[in-house]
Amino acid sequence: MTQTAPSPVTVKRPTRIQKAAVIGAGTMGAAIAAQLANAGIPTLLLDIVLPDAKDRSAASKGGLERALKASPAAFMDKADAALITTGNLEDDFDKLRDADWIVEAIIEKLDAKRTLWERVESVAKKTAIISSNSSGIPMHLQIEGRGQDFRRRFVGAHFFNPPRYLHLLEVIPTSETAPEVIEAFREFGDVHLGKGIVIANDVPGFVANRIGVYGIVRAMNWMEKTGLTPDVVDVLTGPILGRAKSATFRTADLSGLDIISHVANDLQKVTPPDEDFTLPGFLVEMVEQRKLLGEKTGAGFYKRVKGAGGKSTILTLNLRTFEYEDKGKVRLAALEGLRNLPLNERVSKILALQGPEGEFVQGLMRDYLWYAAKMAGVVSNSIVDIDNALKWGFAWEQGPFETMDVLGVQNVIHFLEMYGYELPPILQSFKASGRDKFYQDDTVLTPSGTVSSYEAPYLVLKDLKKDATKVVRSKPGASVLDIGDGVLLLEFHAKMNALGEDAVQMVFAAHKAVQELGYAGLVVGNQGENFSAGANLALILMQAQDGDFDDIDLGIRAFQKATTSMRFSPHPTVVAPFGLTLGGGCEMALHADHVQASAELYTGLVEVGVGLIPGGGGTKEMLLRFTDGLPSGQNLMPAVQRAFELIGTAKVSTSAHEARKLGFLRASDDISMNRDRLIDDAKRKVLELAPDYVQPVMRTDIPVMGEQGVAAVKAALYGMLMGGQISEYDREIGLMIAKILSGGNHVSRTAKVSEQHLLDLEREAFLTLTGKRKTQERIAHMLKTGKPLRN
């Protein structure tokens, strides 16, 4: 059917999305509703009326219940489930008229979607955006027969599962979607839902699935050709190649082998013969005959079995016998020397491998890069969006065009021509021009072969640092950068962003630079994998084992000065934590004038896990926060108990929302849904605080319980020891925490102490513990295994 040409008259500007509706409460629909609730958006969740169900809304209520129990958690805070109203498509359909955005996530059948849209058109308000979450049915086919106004407000919104954690949201306009609708929805998805937005063309598979599924199919075929096994291929296509730990076959198991097969077969029908989505015979047998569908059936390419003592073992499917085998951990000698190299160096060296492993990687990479280049201008009109789709949808470090830049595009062209590939148009234009990179000097090549300027929509530190004038101070473990508008940024960049000597020194250098160079204030943040996993334990252990306790003492004093400088400086300091923000990283945030946190924040004071206590003011800060929260004259024990439980159990938040409930964030602190915008949001907060900023002074009026508090905690610890909940050494550490939280053993219960007094108690306890054998054993065990030792 021929599509109607769009009218020159634009639709009404969409209203800000304040209420949403999700139609379909299956795995995907319920998870989308949960993400909307995470963003604070009241959401209506509708599904069919189940036959013979006592509750006519049982389907939607069941979907919500599954989302509440999902692992990994769909909700950042389960209390936000209250924002979701459940209902059914018969009794509650008229409620859709209140929604600013309506998205469907129903069965993947074109007729069902068309019927639904006919009903939606009759009730949706004229400013509502209408979307489908379909992963394969073209958007323009779904809206045939609908009115022009409806068609111009319709745009595809393809989330990746699970929506909370996978950053990608493919936005798929049709030829009739109004530009203002695209922009309004792009902004909503980016800022409010926290997604990385890719504009996809309305073609089969869109961007990520079209290229990603092709890569999975080709990996299976190359594995069959080279005689390798799934576990070996997953080593070759996992982190070593800058891709997710689930690599190829674990990813396929998680996605569902039936889904992979279905998508590949559908793409085979609608794509040119040279694209070749033909599935290998072993996958057809697994899906159609043996029903080995992956995680959903408990067995696919891998199968998890529990042995003696409940320990799990991962078995690998033998594709010749279809029996599962315990093959142990795969080790490829040729890769051992590559793991610690930067990704760009690894990629080149992996392509130089010999034997069947080399044949596999080279064949797969040829197919993958050729196909990605062929899809430029087909699946998207932006190679930046294609790169981002693969990175955000599959958790890869590099997209295909970035990989070609690493290898040299002219080398890739030669590589493909040598094996008889017909060059896609974009590579033909490269061959003619002699250009060797897609991304070059703030320009990017477009699929049509023209050069376009390119600037990321948010601050990218690695791009900023290309201008040497932006680097104000630098050491191997930390740097100070000028991020514009009179704001400096302190960036940690050691391994796991551990807070060692470089980081501490650069804290002081950053504050000094703000004052001497006339900046408005400071942001503390970075764009690594995590904000900071805490102190440099290896250094502490080495000093302790060598008996360098004077150096440890000086180090603690310096670190306390660094953490407290986040608040007690002449300018505003905003800390922007994300991911793992543990121990000392948490203490940095606790002392900030303001915290601009990523929604995905896993923060806590975890020092007891290595036999220590929070020594950078964390213990002091939790006590101060919780006592300040008590009504005047109330018993302090609830505050002491609350702080003790957080520190003594090494509690870590599962989101920024939970961090606020636990007390690691204040009500005045802010949360950014999109981590890519975190530094920009923090910078804006500095500029907001700077004009009226007054430097705080340390408190001297913190009420403490003294010996009474120590005695109460001591009794509780004794009961836990007798009950086998803690070890004797845990009890010893607990008593030290209790002493700090109570202001010391020799302080009366009516006393008030200073922040410095509590910092001194922290320092003394930390120093004492580093000298104890069991603490050193715990640190050594953590460094070796990554797990705590309870000795």
Task: Characterise this structure.
By secondary structure, this protein is α/β, with parallel strands linked by helices. The chain has four domains: 180 residues, 3-Layer(aba) Sandwich (Rossmann fold); 246 residues, Orthogonal Bundle (N-(1-d-carboxylethyl)-l-norvaline Dehydrogenase, domain 2), CATH 1.10.1040; 190 residues, 2-enoyl-CoA Hydratase, Chain A, domain 1 (Alpha-Beta Complex); 133 residues, no CATH class. Helices cover 43% and strands 13% of the residues. The strands form seven sheets. Strands 15-16-17-18-19-21-23 form a seven-stranded mixed beta sheet, sandwiched between helices. Strands 3-2-1-4-5 form a five-stranded parallel beta sheet, covered by helices on one side. A three-stranded mixed beta sheet has the order 6-7-8. β2, α2 and β3 form a beta-alpha-beta unit. The protein is globular and about 80 Å long. The N terminus is likely disordered.
